[in-house]
Design goal:
223 residues, Rossmann fold, 9 strands
Length: 223
């Protein structure tokens, strides 16, 4: 977050600092998120609780509590998803680079599946300069957990042409691709490609209440 003089907000930077920066702008709501560390469940629970409380205490300015777990925490991570979902979490955040996990790890599929049980979309940071196979790993994850919704923020970084990969797969049985485009007017638009009876992707547009200004989502669907 930058202030008007393009300086990083000083530490500490409480929620009020961010709200002060956007006063008078068109920004009226924001998401609050955390990223879990592995093998530190007390910290994970504390930070998840703080995000949920912030959403409740900010007059809904921070309207979207995005909680996190670490896939390496196994069953404890799954129990934490159960807990935060009951407490009001809206999304789940996973960051392969920061959390140092492989998207292809079976533990990731377990976390995504548990999130899907509660209807929580999973927000991934989807740019890894160290893993050229990540686009295919997200497709495999979507196929493995067809009920999940995966949101790929910063999708593939400067390799964004790889997003065409998802559109190529969209007509195939069992795979659908969604793309969250840049803001159109005052609300983001979500375009969803769905497989039509003619075996070509048909597009249906719907207004989404939340999205990143540049993100991509992929998911698989049962046909």
């Amino acid at each position: 977050m930058l202030d008007p003089e393009s300086q990083i907000v000083a530490v500490p930077h409480p929620p009020e600092a961010y709200r002060g920066l956007v006063d008078g702008s068109q920004v009226c709501r924001a998401a609050a998120l955390t990223i879990a560390h592995g093998d530190d469940l007390d910290r994970t629970r504390t930070r998840n609780d703080a995000v949920i409380k912030l959403a409740k205490d900010s007059d809904r300015f921070f309207y979207l509590p995005v909680c996190s777990v670490h896939p390496a925490d196994g069953l404890a991570a799954l129990r934490e998803i159960d807990r935060v979902a009951a407490a009001g979490a809206a999304w789940l955040k996973l960051h392969p680079n920061t959390q140092r996990f492989d998207v292809a790890d079976p533990a990731v599929a377990m976390v995504v599946r548990k999130a899907a049980e509660h209807g929580l979309p999973v927000l991934f940071d989807a740019y890894s300069p160290w893993d050229a196979n990540q686009p295919g790993k997200y497709v495999n994850l979507a196929i493995a957990v067809p009920e999940a919704r995966l949101i790929l923020a910063h999708a593939h970084g400067p390799g964004f042409p790889q997003l065409l990969f998802y559109d190529v797969l969209a007509p195939l049985p069992g795979v659908a691709a969604e793309r969250v485009d840049r803001y159109l007017g005052d609300r983001p638009r979500c375009l969803r490609a769905a497989r039509s009876p003619s075996n070509s992707p048909g597009c249906c547009a719907r207004w989404a209440s939340t999205a990143s200004s540049s993100a991509a989502t992929t998911r698989s669907t049962n046909r």
